[in-house]
């Protein structure tokens, strides 16, 4: 077994503590990665707090991982020692179902293996990127382009692909009007990527506090949803709405902003069920959809797209000692726009 330093949490109301975890010895196609940076995703917080169901504590979260290959298994062909690589929200899948064969491993019919809070094919619980090392089968590792710094690359492995995938799937591009709900870690990436794709981007946020940032990131318009005339003014406007908010909102109000055949895609994952009036869909043949991350092939495509268009997240690098405080700040929307842990501080 390989010993790794980590930060773990022992329960939904517990603080993070210093821990030592075991990483498996390398199998034939495994890659050992020395983690340099790990992003903090809202999903980490939901899981650590037990908001998405039962959790097998102790838990080491983190599925925005950037690092360097330090060892490879004897049959690894895609990577070599010294390669700059990333790991996202999953570390394995069945590899044989229809969805996996289509490169959509995130929708594996047998269930993909999440980077943390899952169980791997060896029957062991998976632990994430708030650690110094991780062992992953090579098919679930991606190459980080040379012109993207590792600290900035980390959030792309979740926030980047979570927004890139639906923008591609629903055709964001020239001539399309795209609205982004929320200007947090996911939202600011959605704005940057949609703008680079050529879409006309509008931010819908509770206030105008981040308007200057939104316009700098590529938004053409920025509206406060707390203003009573916003929904009237923008009714029937957008071809695509990406909702990044992980909280309950008035879905009917946002659906009213879609044009004929428009689609609202939820990428935020609130802990409570959402409700809507089906007439909000029927009236203009609108669609309400959801989207996860992308598959491994699409994740690499996203990284290459971001490298080509010089897109990186806005980050705040923190020490591992500051994880609990960072969680509180995320919940208070007090981050611009993604916390990234320097794992040398573990």
Automatic annotation (TrEMBL):
Gene3D superfamilies: Medium-chain alcohol dehydrogenases, catalytic domain, NAD(P)-binding Rossmann-like Domain. InterPro entries: ADH-like_C (IPR013149), ADH-like_N (IPR013154), ADH_Zn_CS (IPR002328), CAD-like (IPR047109), ER (IPR020843), GroES-like_sf (IPR011032), NAD(P)-bd_dom_sf (IPR036291). GO terms for molecular function: alcohol dehydrogenase (NADP+) activity; zinc ion binding. Its cofactor is Zn(2+). Residues 11-341 form the Enoyl reductase (ER) domain. Belongs to the zinc-containing alcohol dehydrogenase family. PANTHER family: ALDEHYDE REDUCTASE. This is NAD(P)-dependent alcohol dehydrogenase. It comes from Alkalicoccobacillus porphyridii. The lineage of its organism: Bacteria, Bacillati, Bacillota, Bacilli, Bacillales.
């Amino acid at each position: 077994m390989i010993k790794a330093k980590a930060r773990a949490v022992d329960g939904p109301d517990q603080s993070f503590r210093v821990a030592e975890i075991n990483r498996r010895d390398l199998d034939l196609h495994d890659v050992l990665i020395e983690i340099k940076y790990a992003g903090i995703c809202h999903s980490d917080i939901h899981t650590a707090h037990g908001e998405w169901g039962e959790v097998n504590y102790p838990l080491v979260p983190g599925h925005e991982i950037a690092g360097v290959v330090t060892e490879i298994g004897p049959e690894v062909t895609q990577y070599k020692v010294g390669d700059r690589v990333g790991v996202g929200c999953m570390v394995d899948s069945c590899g044989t179902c229809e969805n996996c064969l289509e490169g959509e491993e995130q929708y594996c019919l047998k269930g993909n293996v999440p980077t943390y809070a899952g169980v791997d094919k060896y029957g062991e619980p998976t632990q994430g990127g708030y650690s110094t090392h991780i062992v992953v089968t090579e098919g679930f590792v991606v190459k980080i382009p040379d012109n993207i710094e590792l600290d900035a690359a980390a959030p792309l492995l979740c926030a980047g692909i979570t927004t890139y995938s639906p923008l591609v799937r629903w055709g964001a591009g020239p001539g399309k009007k795209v609205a982004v709900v929320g200007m947090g870690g996911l939202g600011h990436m959605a704005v940057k990527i949609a703008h680079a794709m050529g879409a006309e981007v509008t931010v819908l946020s509770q206030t105008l506090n981040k308007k200057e940032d939104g316009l700098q990131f590529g938004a053409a318009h920025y509206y406060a949803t707390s203003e009573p005339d916003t929904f009237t003014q923008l009714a029937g406007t957008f071809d695509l709405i990406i909702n990044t908010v992980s909280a309950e909102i008035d879905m009917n109000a946002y659906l009213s902003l879609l044009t004929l055949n428009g689609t609202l895609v939820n990428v935020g994952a609130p802990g409570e069920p959402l409700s809507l009036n089906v007439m909000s869909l029927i009236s203009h043949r609108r669609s309400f959809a959801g989207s996860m991350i992308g598959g491994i092939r699409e994740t690499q495509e996203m990284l290459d797209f971001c490298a080509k268009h010089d897109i990186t997240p806005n980050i705040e690098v923190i020490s591992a000692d500051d994880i609990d405080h960072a969680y509180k700040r995320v919940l208070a929307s007090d981050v611009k726009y993604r916390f990234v842990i320097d794992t040398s501080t573990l």
